[in-house]
Design a protein that fits this description.
CATH superfamily of the largest domain: Vaccinia Virus protein VP39
CATH architecture of the largest domain: 3-Layer(aba) Sandwich
Number of helices: 6
Number of strands: 13
Radius of gyration: 28 Å
Strand order of the largest sheet: 9-8-7-10-11-13-12
Bound molecules: S-adenosylmethionine
Distance between the termini: 42 Å
Order of helices and strands: EHEEEEEHEHEHEEHEHEE
Structural class: alpha/beta
Number of domains: 2
Length: about 240
Amino acid sequence: MKYIRYIYSLQEESFYQLLTEYTKGVEILDRKDGNVIFAVYEKLDHLEPLQVQEVRIKHPKSYLRTIRVKDFLIVPYGIKTLFINPGMAFGTGLHPSTQVCLLLIDEFFKRGWTAIDVGCGSGILSIALKKLGAKEVLAIDIDQVAIRECKKNAKTNGVSIKCIKARPQDVKETYDFLCANLEIDIFRKEMKHIKPLFNKRAVFSGIYGREELEELLEMLKDLRTVKIKKLKGWYGIVVEK
Ligand SMILES: C[S@@+](CC[C@H](N)C(=O)[O-])C[C@H]1O[C@@H](n2cnc3c(N)ncnc32)[C@H](O)[C@@H]1O
């Protein structure tokens, strides 16, 4: 942000008189021979500035950081927090395939859409979808432990997610958005059941290296590929219908 800074000099007595009336911030720069040199961020009536400076100030928000102090995590306002205890399920958020998926969900998911998370694990992606304003989220996994952890994590995060033990072919409804962080072997077997589950956009991840990427793109060639993102060798792909 750009500001104009006005530097003035006043005799001490006049300066303290000004302080009694002036309600905004005054920065005292120096005191010399009974005078006070000070700066304000607007022009003062009836006074000639010693200097007028253009200053660039970073927005206070840009100084905010997430800080950990022992068991306290101090999070700046506006950051979306995901509280995850994965238990024995996959999905701490440390794996690049989860991170690439989160980045693409953040970019391509639209508030108000319905969504399905295939292979929810800890529920990390489902919770993110809810925090981004999903109308309804169905989280499925073949692992009962994942379902239990996903339900617990949804509760901890104060979001409502339907978590069920199911395979893609068990789901009969269609959702606006789909995310699936699986593996190439699973995509080979399940893609024909996964594709009918969404009608707008989908994010696929869990793909490592060029060869797997090419194979997945071949499986998705009847859809429009809108983005391919790579993170530490792991690919995420966004497709549209
Ligand atoms: C790599 S983990 C992803 C966890 C979490 N979504 C994430 O992004 O961190 C894949 C999950 O898919 C589940 N899974 C494997 N095969 C599946 C299938 N055919 N249908 C549904 N879930 C499956 C696994 O049990 C596992 O929890």
